[in-house]
Amino acid sequence: MSASLKRKRSSFNEADGLKRTKTVNSQITKPAEASASVHSLNNETVQDKSLEKDSNIKGCEHANSSIYQGVGATSNHAESSAAAAFDRNKIAESWYLSPPIGGRMIRSDPVFSVDEKFLIAASRATINVTATTSSLLIRSIKLKLDPIFAVSTQIVTICLSPSKSNILWVACSDGSIFSVDWTTGAGADSFWTVSSTGCIHMTVASMESNGRRRDVIFTTENRKDGGYRTTANELADPNGPIAIATRTIYTSKEPIQCLQAAIDGSVIVGASGNRILVGRLRSAQFDTVDKIKFEFRILESRDYITSIDIKLSKRSDAKTSLKNKTHRIPIVDLVVGNIRGVIFIHSDLAGKLFSQSQNEAVPSLLGLMPSKLHWHRQTVHSVKWSLDGNYIISGGKENVLVLWQLETGKRQFLPHMSAVIENIVVSPKGSSYAIQLSDNSLMALSTADLLPKMIITGIQTPIIQFSKFMDRRMQRNNGESFHKPLIQRIPAIMNPINPSQILLAVGSVAEITANGPFVMSNPLLQTFDLATCKSTSVQALTRTNVTNTNSAPSTHNLMEPRVTKIEVSSDGSWLATVDEWTPPNCDYEFLNYSGKDPSTEKKYRREVYLKFWQFKSSTSVWELVSRIDMPHLFNDGSGDSGSILDLTADPSSLRFATIGTDRTVKIWYTKSRVRDGVLVRGTQNEVLKSWRCLRTIQLEKSGIYEINCTVSNSLPLTGCLSYSEDGSALAAVLGGKNARLHIINPESGDVRRSYPGLIEDEIFGLKFLGQDLIILSNRLQSFDIILEETRHILKLRSSAARLSTDQKREMMHLAVSNQSKTFAVALPKLSTGVEPLLGARSELTVFHQDIWKPLYNEMSSSLTTALLPAISSEGYVILDACAEIHTILPKGTHKPIFLAQSTSALRLDATAGSDDQTGSLPDEGDEGDEIEDEPINKISKYLDEAYNTDDQFPVVTQNELAQILDVGPSFALPPIEELFYQVAGLFTNNAVAPIAC
Q: Where are the WD repeats (predicted)?
């Protein structure tokens, strides 16, 4: 028995996990006024040596008395008050980070249940069970990973047990294997470790030997001495009578990216680079798996293999042309898809390979020539046999599902899918196809009419790429890339009308490379409900390539516009967006031979649009009302359209403000449409509106611009805007060497005051919090605009200060909460390896407006891509690079039901147990003989039968329950009888009246 194959029980609590976490020095340093104190981070008491003296601030205290006068006294007073009123240990525990929701589905094939009523998919560390009839999430199972590797561990493959239909085998990247009962969630807290070097892929076969049937798990792993191996494992309870056994059956120099096992594990087929591996079981008589032996044959291909699938059929007795040993091998038909878009079909490959010579490498013979199918222009991401073997289903980067009829050679297409097809799965009965797309959506199509029966959509923001195989062998021009590794900021905003909804600018890109990320397009607006953990709508904000060809003749991808800013008006009825598109570099490479600068030509052809959308409650869609072309066009005749650096909404009126590279601030307002002196009205007799520029404010030029420098070198790279809470003041900053803070009167357009020396080079965040202005540049500071003095200054550590301007602009975040009088900051901390984004994290810190020390300070599990204040709550909403959403809330306060909750908090596992031998979940549609014998969770069915026979399965969201139950303190609640009838009315879709006595 291998020592590493021991059953492990993850019986650790949260505190134990924190104790194992290494203490990470804060990226924020204190100025000289702050004295060192003892902090309690990660449950470890350490001396805070990060409070370093800021010599730069000390040297400029008397340089500008109007700004820095009284800084020391103000900071000392705030610190002494905080020390007197708060204990540091208590402050560190006063806020907490909630468990994540959402996540991106892994690239492994989803799994149908045997009865096809449920579809099982996996995200980073969660298994989600969805009903195929209603698209509702039935159960979410969170794996309890090893706390030492939990941050960098994710699920790589899930497989349904061939012998027990209620058991799901789960392989994780750290080499751990889980056996989970997906109908109850049992087994999620214990695992086996099959490899200390990690797991790449897994497949499961049910094998019988010596009168005993067992599940054998075949895994592909890294070897410590280099290379890769395939291992057969029999995993069992270490306290049981069956011993745990393992055996390496194949080794290779290249990774094995695909692996499938035939019935009873007699044949194994895999792909390693451009080679096809076919293995056959030598003898079916073995006591334990460590005595199992396989014989492999290799068939080489020209191109990198990306997908395979096998079809099995029994060999007839009449076929005697092959040797006797091949009679034990079933007929294995193999379909292979490669990176160039070609599909090959190998008929009876196992029988032909093992009928050849005993050499490992088989020569290219006429009998091994495959059939060829070619329609895809790029990588075939997934290819599958139909259940009857008459069709082949394939999909890839063309966003088209292709069905190949083998007898006639005809093709059937299902075009215009919303994103790249990643995985295709055929249901056990052959009645459905499960299609997983790169935009984090999953659908089940009926094989009869190819219409969707189920659609689920998760958070569609991209994640950092961990996959090592897809598209690595073919270099394609994907557009412009950043000079430094970073992950783009996700434009996001909370919906003021519905506090449980978050609006995200997303695209179809699933993953970004960790070393040289490209500029991603995000032309879509996704509305995601935090209360139900579901996507409610997705609509286009710019032109898209869903119905167009998405690649040019030169093979580079046609990039869609990038939405850089989104903002919602205070009443939630208007949405303002900024999108920008620049031609790719490859279109202007010919200019290098003529001595011209391609960047100048690209600048003239840049497209910048400011769009205003109005929400239509009847259709729940944002309708485009106005589009402003080149809103910040330079007036010097150069033709430069100018980029918009920031966009903000007036909290007191229907106005928006923008700041651009033309060094102007523009205020936009709504105006009624008039035609021939008559108001223009819509179909509902409403007055139609349009948006116009109210005024343009020219900001003072910086010192760099005033010197004889070229305009291209002096254009600002960063800029920020912020309205005060009452809308009476507008703060504006343009980044640069001599950046200034401008306070503008929005009504008159006058610049009231300008403060030099506050901003250190570029500006990355600017927010009003009461009368204080929170400024994030190369230091974090709060500036009182009434007293005109700096209250607090925090210097960024060198690890954050050394980042490039692009990295800071995209990965440094600032948010303020007027309800709790706090502000939150997220600063990136990249890893030191070859790929800095792998393992990169963000340091999250929450400060009170009047307290010097942080209320919350912790390293997140991944980089933060959006940081937003929660609506009608004192917390913050965080979106990270794993496409997961967290919330930070103060302890002791009531958590609103509309904020992000983990799926365990949604009580999805409250379904009653079932004695069904097929391993399915309880069927709520089955009726018993007597009502008294039915489970409690079926009460909604009987209410429907009594009051509404048209809707058998009403869906009640938590937001609807919150409107009834979350109305205030207990003494303000209505009578309990009235509450009961209100809740019962939700489940019946009718008003339930009290029964008269």
A: 373-414, 637-668
Find all residues with CB under 8 Å of 91, minimum gap 6, and list them: 851, 853, 854, 855
From 329, 331, 326, 345, select the one nearest 383 (Cα to Cα).
345
In the chain, pLDDT over 90 holds for what percent of residues? Answer: 44
Amino acid residing at 314: K
Give the integer Cα–Cα distance in Å for 747 and 312.
76
Query: How does pLDDT run across 584-624, given as a tens digit for each residue?
Result: 877 777 776 776 777 777 778 889 999 999 999 888 899 99
- CA-based end-to-end distance of the chain: 72
Question: What's the Cα-to-Cα distance from 682 to each of 308, 421, 612, 688, rounded to whole Å?
Answer: 55, 40, 17, 6
Coil, strand or helix: which one is 257? strand
280: Cα separation from own chain's centroid: 40
On whether residue 884 sits in a domain, the answer given is no
Q: Determine the Cα–Cα distance for residues 82 and 87; give it in Å rounded to an integer.
A: 8
Torsion, Cα 27 31 36 41, to 10 degrees, reads: -20
Strand 511-512 relative to strand 463-464: parallel, antiparallel, unpaired?
A: parallel
Domain end marker among 63, 93, 123: 93
Instruction: Find the DSSP H helices in 65-121.
Output: 65-68, 71-85, 88-92
How high is the pLDDT of residue 897? 55
Residue 972 located in a structural domain: yes
C-alpha 122/C-alpha 116 separation (Å) is: 17
Closest CA to 147 of 122, 125, 123: 125
Which range in 201-210, 722-731, 830-839 is most confidently predicted, on average pLDDT?
A: 722-731
Alpha helices in 689-844 (DSSP H): 703-706, 711-714, 798-801, 805-811
Nearest one of 70, 21, 75 to 53, comparing CA atoms: 75
What is the C-alpha to C-alpha distance for residues 192 and 246, in angstroms, rounded to an integer? 12
Residue 484's nearest CA partner among 768, 732, 714, 806 is: 806
47-59 average pLDDT score: 34
Query: What HEC string does 730-754 produce?
Result: EEEEECCCCCEEEEECCCCCCEEEE
Residue 995 pLDDT more than 70? Answer: no
Say yes or no to pLDDT of 907 above 80: no
Among 93, 125, 153, residue at a domain's last position: 93
Say how many domains are in the chain: 2
In what helix (H) or strand (E) does residue 981 lie, and over which residues does it extend? helix 976-988
Question: What CA–CA distance (Å, rounded) separates 397 from 421?
Answer: 6
pLDDT tens per residue, range 870-889: 987 889 999 999 999 999 99
Most distant CA atoms of the chain, gap in Å = 101
For 944-953, the pLDDT digits (tens) are 443 343 445 5
H/E stretch holding 678 reads strand 678-679
Residue 936 lies in a domain: yes
Query: Residues in the chain, how many?
Result: 997
| DSSP state letter for 187 | T
Q: In Å, what is the CA distance from 422 to each residue of 166, 241, 517, 895?
A: 26, 42, 20, 38
Who wins on pLDDT, 548 or 928? 548
Q: Which residue has the tokens 């923001």?
A: 461
Mean pLDDT computed over 881-906: 72
DSSP state of 631: T
Q: What are the angstrom distances between the C-alpha of 182 and each of 111, 188, 858, 925?
A: 11, 9, 33, 20
| Residue 978, pLDDT score | 78
How confident is the model over 124-151, as pLDDT tens digits?
899 999 999 988 889 999 998 877 677 7
- How far apart CA 660 and CA 642 sit, in angstroms, is 7
Nearest 10 degrees: Cα torsion 815, 818, 820, 826: 10
Cβ atoms 533, 906 nearer than 8 A: yes
Give 947-979 pLDDT, tens digit per residue: 343 445 566 766 677 777 766 666 566 777 778
Query: Does residue 643 lie within any of the structural domains?
Result: no
Tell me the whole-structure pTM to 2 decimals: 0.79
Q: What is the average pLDDT value for the chain, to the nearest integer?
A: 79
